[in-house]
User: Fold these one by one.
Assistant:
Number 1:
Amino acid sequence: MNNKNISRRNLFKVSAIAGGGLMLKLSLPVNALEDSRTTLVKSSELNFYVQIASDGQITIYAPNPEMGQGIKTTLPMIIAEEMGANWDDVEVVLAPIDPAKFGMQGSGGSMSVTRNFDAMRRMGASAREMLIGAASELMEVERRDLKAEASRVIHGSGRSMSFGQLASVAAQQPVPVPEQLSFKDPRSYSIIGTSVGSVDNLVIATGLTKFGIDVDIPGMKFAGYTRCPRPGGKAISFNESEIKALPGVIDAFILQPDARSGKASMAFLDGLAALQGGVAIVGEDTWSVFSAKAKLKVSWDESGASKDQWSKMVTDARAIAVKGGGEVKLAGASVTEALSDGNNRTLEAFYEFPYVAHVCMEPMNCTVDFRKGSAGKPDSLEIWLGSQFPNQVKEIAENMLGVKQENVVVHGLRMGGGFGRRAVHDFAAEAMAISHQSGLPVKLTWTRTDDIHNDYFRVGGFENMKGAVSLDGKLAAWDQHYIGFADDKGKRVIGSGLRGNELSMVAFDNARVSQTMMPVATACGAWRAPGSNTNAFVEQSFIHELASLAERDHLEFLTELMGSRRWIKDGDISALNTGRAIDVIKLAAQKAGWGKAMPEGHGLGLAFYFCHAAHVAEVAEVSVDVDKNYSVKRVTVAVDVGPIINMSGAINQVQGSIVDGLSTMALQEITMQNGRIEQDNFHQYPVMRIASTPEIDVHFIQSDNKPTGLGEPALPPLAPAVTNAIFAATGKRIRSMPLSNEGYKLV
Amino acid sequence: MSKHKLTVNGNSLEVDVEGDMPLLWVLRDKFKLTGTKFGCGIAQCGACTVHIDGVAVRSCVLPVSSVTGLVTTIEGLAQGEDLHPLQSAWIEHDVPQCGYCQAGQIMSAAALLSKNSQPSDNDIDQALAGNYCRCGTYVRIRRAVHTAASFYNADKRNS
Ligand code: FES
Ligand code: FES
């Protein structure tokens, strides 16, 4: 690896060109790559996160894994702000995996900003105080007359010294007591709240970024792994001699399932996963391995394999819906009475949502170098991967291979998408086992088919809804029966069932909520806004159904349901605040021109959802023709996640969530046939293409609440906003996703 | 195995592999040019897009034995230290999220701009129809292509 320092200051020579634009120029060897350590040699360390070189370059460590959610840029911005740094002087380096220094280095649940905001402010403020201390000493002036700004410490008289000049003396200053640190007045922010480009844009645009799949280590071989097409099956034998004779193949062997590698079914934060049985192939290059995989003939023991059948799940769920019952989560005062009251208008509707896959653009992969100990040296293991929780792989190494955690070195790389998939490390268990068994350093790369078949899917499910509205058009009763899935131990799989913060659970007067779980063997996992991404569709569609039944304006009906402005649990960011809800709903509606006359075949649809501490409302504008070709023209989004740290990054997350939400509701479905996943690649599991992209208009209410994350919460309201708009345009109600199954074609 | 001679980013290179190995894997595994990405292997996602004689192709389905023209990958798109206008525009518009698809997006867009320096939204949608972005950065991709087109034209007038 080339260790040349790449600072953005050195990267760009900005030159004006005719036409008034600015052209950025690259001024470094094209093979220069980010490398953390050597850039810091002449730097002074102020704390674990901040180093300043004598030439003024400021290096800030980004603690959390980056998967496209922008955290590598966002957290350092907070530090730089409190320090008084000039952002252009900052070089961001991904921190090594070292929880002792950097805390819980994980990305998931849209909590990175919330969890780290104060810690990052402290790091920045602490560095600032040390720089001010140094300036006070060197300039022989009082601390209180000094301030830090634009990478300089400035005295009231106008004299100043640069951070670079101060760095070495600053590093000798006592570390400030955290409780005595004060933070900047947000009104004086010059970095937080602005639009800052992602720190890796240049290396991405020039193809120099290293993702996990790009790792290359000395002596590395390439590996593939083929599991039983029915989850839970084991390999008995395979055409070993034929496979081993193929060009480029070095080794091929069976791996047995290994329970020591962790849990088969994930719980979000202990995302270890069992090594599944299958056949490993090691070769000279990826293509030789993939070609050999295609020629594998395996005899499988399927006695313990999944028999999941989506079509049967649908039939069973419909029967359960008719029967009713289930575990009662909320009883409601007089739901049955209101539903049978002849004066009320009532409605019953069955909703359905499918299993979907993550299909991260970068298929799962992992590079492992297992080294057998000798001469008193213990076994050790080095591992390179893109993971949302990289440190967790150490447990797999210890439990499965007996390598002590202190002898495992983990390198976390940029992820080509995560969305919850890279919170589970089954692929890492496979790579470890293959390196261990073959005695070779290997990079395991999954084919897209492996990636789809072996996903930890967004769980599908059903909700049977009943509702009543009174003669004066008010909600009289809400009856919600969630029919979801639990694993073989009866534990609800992640994302299935209601979480407790749904509107029905916290805001409605007369609601009954019950839950029935069916068994599932197919692996389920966290998929962008788990639970919320499907329940929002049902809840927000059914509210619209009831508003229509009551012949009420949807906007009015929805805001009325929120009741008085109140915080359901005072001070708890994970609790709904009806005031903030009403504000985003009204803002989205106003910006979208709610109530305006729409041309024939056009409609506006509204939806709101609260999850991940975020209040988000969306209005979709769609057009639908008689052949059910529909197009989403524009989506207007109003978001309250408190103050925005990086405006450009925040808008990017919202835009991405809208596209992801649309892609999923319009096109995507995973089905099981006797345990086997029926979709093999993108031809059967498409992703939305550029032409279908709506205009996306994003508005933030920057309330003075704590800043919270935005990787997930803008997704859930999209599907109901679109189906509500289709109803407005056509009078047709859609109660099942994806819309392609209902004959609708997204154009 | 047989020897295949290729010109990649202006360099003459030789590789000894099976003739059916797709160009993608020759670039990535043999030449260590990992900017070109693997996404599907069946010409559906565009992550593997490179140019052959300036035309955008899906390298995951192109056997190395059939490659005759000059190959350009994302690593060879900048002219020395001058970024391609698309690369500048990508940075200016803060396009990437995870970044994995972006090399393919930029290569498809570059092939478009070389033929059509004032593309409409529709032209962009067609030229980039083969490129998935799972993170959903399409809005910014469109804007960045328009910006790059204005750089491109300004640059041409300049020279
Ligand atoms: S990898 Fe070539 S099109 Fe997907
Ligand atoms: S930026 Fe992640 S797939 Fe496009």
Number 2:
Amino acid sequence: MKLTLRVWRQKNPDAPGAMATYELDGVSQDMSFLEMLDVLNEELIVKGDEPVAFDHDCREGICGACSLVINGDAHGPERTTTCQLHMRSFQDGDTIDIEPWRASAFPVIKDLVVDRSAFDRVIQAGGYITAPTGAAPEAHATPVPKADADFAFEHAECIGCGACVAACPNGAAMLFTSAKVNHLNVLPQGSPERETRVLDMVAQMDAEGFGGCTLTGECATACPKGIPLFSITAMNKEWLRATRKVKR
Amino acid sequence: MALNFWQSTLGKKIVMGATGLIMIGYLCAHLLGNMKIFFGPGEFNAYGHWLRVMGAPVLHHEWGLWIARIVLLAAVVLHAVSAYQLSRRDIKARPQKYVHTKPRMSYATRTMRWGGVILGLFIVWHVLDLTTGTTHSGGFQEGHPYQNVVDTFSTWYGNVIYIVAMLAMGMHVRHGFWSAAQTLGAGNHTRDRALKAIANALAIVLTAGFISIPVGVMTGVVS
Ligand code: HEM
Ligand code: FES
């Protein structure tokens, strides 16, 4: 298939960026979106142009490194990561707009690569347990009710890609933060820090300059892992509970 | 603690949700009271009088009314201040728009901010029109709310301002009620359909109910 790509090009964080247009021929329907960009980059290198910078790592939908807003959708038209999106989701002759995640807490480093270290700092504020962990313990040592285990797992699926922030009209990180809070807060292993975790992670989320939630639901629609919007509701509940319990 | 609460985006949002619910509760009571207009001037004016003696003999004359006014004023101010501060923050958090944009959010969701501003302006006008009488069209008569209402809805602009504001209110309540449930941590998968149904029912009943009054005056049912 033959495509017209309009790609955000930006030399460095301070340079002004702009959309650049490229024609790309010979794209196979079986290529992943990132393989299609690899082909574009090979052509650019042969021509002596600078290749398009984009993030990727596992290319199997588990690491959360890949990003890209494709035709206005974070991770493109399917509910999956960009690395797992295939060109069969597009038509021959399509024009495809490719932009970086947009949020002031995620500044552009170069082209389509943004700095997502704000997420790392939110995790550092409380997305861990303090119990000493050695080798994996005997699985039945700490019983967890099935419903809690399911709830924790649903939220543990978050790969921290940032699609929720990119899709949110307020650049809010509520879905990410709530997934991380809920995952640990419901489990016995996470309960010693149940209150401080939610208070500290939310405070860090605010300090990073993410926006607030207006319940538009864009985040949950964009999430490649299907973290539900009610994850945010559950975090709000945890936060309210924690403000009542913890006196600071 | 109180300061920490207010400084958090979650805390501000919770204030916004709680004050929004207080205002929705007030709107329901206000609508029920206003419906008395369809039973004639005697009944409606008597209701207006009762508002002044409500709570007697425990409360002094008009104390109940003033307590309600103070609570409502505090709710409107806290709601508007948190909405303003959070909106400023939200806009700053997403300075650059996407080149490729699609409208996705529902109309009610997209119009919360401008709808809120319309409601704020409406509240000011409404108080000046029918409570203080400052901007009232006819000769405003203290203690004769029935006639005052008829006078207001005998002008074209009175009807237009009121009906537009009530449509905005319906939209605001539709997204607002459901949002407040999420903000206060009350929503989940199983309750969602019920919450959305209540939000829609509230929006429709409040909007249709309030609009029935100017329509009543225009059609001569109330005169
Ligand atoms: C009759 C008056 C009003 C009622 C019943 C009402 C009700 C509500 C409710 C229940 C919410 C949801 C809060 C949440 O998300 O948890 C809300 C949100 C909001 N309100 Fe109001 N409100 C009223 C007036 C106003 C006014 C005067 C303003 C503007 C100054 C305003 C601006 C907003 C904004 C910006 C939001 C947030 C929208 C969003 O989350 O997307 N509202 N309102
Ligand atoms: S590259 Fe790892 S999730 Fe896409």
